Amino acid sequence: MFERPQGGERAVLVSIDFNDHDEDSVDEFRELVESTGAEVVAIVSGTRRSPDSKYFVGTGKAEEIKQVLTAHEGELVLFNHSLSPAQERNLEGLLECRVLDRTGLILDIFALRARSHEGKLQVELAQLRHLSTRLIRGWTHLERQKGGIGLRGPGETQLESDRRLIGDRIKQLNKRLDKVRRQRDQGRRSRRRADIPTVSMVGYTNAGKSTLFNRLTTAEVYVADQLFATLDPTLRKVELGAGQVAILADTVGFIRDLPHDLVESFRSTLQETREADLLLHIIDAADPRRNEKIGEVNAVLAEIEADEVPQIQVFNKIDSLDDALVRIERDAEGVAQRIWLSAHSGEGISQLQDIIGERLSQSIEWIDLDLPPGEGRIRAQLFKLGVVEKELVSETGHTHIQIRIDKNEWHRLEREFAIQRFALKSDDEDPQLAGAGMAP
Question: Which long-range contacts (CB under 8 A, 24 or more apart) does 293-301 make?
């Protein structure tokens, strides 16, 4: 579609300090690049107060990048920053090679790792959304006439055509993903009717989620010591002891500055996290930046509205620490909040299963509701969720419903429907309820 330089495997990395220098950020970016199979031949760094509007790094630094590119026979320049479409085009024109920013690189990695039908659809949608902002001047080689009524050149015509084609494809992908979303919703409703809770694993990429997932479920999810080794979500049943079972969901790993297009496109996948009964936040205990990464993960959880789901912090990889022991940390009320373990060696796995079962047992609530005749929408939603245990219609037209629901789901419904104003009438107020057995 574009008259743009071809990419290559020999990459020059660019990371500029805007008074927020973080050496670990450069190391992580290098790891991202190497996970694509590219060879890092040089790293160009520098300091600026603010980005340059034309070349992002300024004219002098851009010329320096060009010299480094020539000296090391580089074929591709990767920026550890987000570039505007104009900056990307200007740099490609000056450097005469393909230029990619951090967002484009992460999208490329996701495209490389997606295996399932849904994953491929989500990645393509994110790529097209990103590409749609970068069509300007993509066809300048076709232009022969400049501006004015009646003087539109073929470049502009082609640009409009590309926008229309991309817009049509985005609509098609959204329709397909809506179908997948409905299928996932149906699966969640079936699990709720079967009274099977869902536990979703979240965490920074390469924290050991897939290794722990395999330990808990005896699954064979691909594991590798690299960023975004696994992309597609996997759901498996897990035994928790005492006959208790749950569905464990392994989701995509998070990373700092996760592209908004990706978060938006992966909402159907991340919905498993938002509607889970419990989150396992997997943390690399041996990572010196673990506190910062915990913040990054919680920021993404807030963006997808999953920050209020109950959470257990799982500090993994204690086998990489000196004298680290399996331990469980509880709050003042005795509720398990953190556990230290090793998915690699298996230490602490049984204790994790115990506290998962413990937390799930604590998260279920029995609630009795009295719904006036005009609140059929709330009743329909409760039945859709599969949480209704008993129902009785009184002579006054009120519907008395008993539900068994996860506390987090209940709080969500309270906010959405303001259900708290519908208190259950006492048996004295409505004789038909007396002896109906509405109490759990």
Answer: 293/204, 293/207, 293/256, 294/204, 296/204, 296/254, 296/255, 296/256, 297/202, 297/203, 297/204, 297/254, 300/254, 300/258, 300/263, 301/202, 301/273
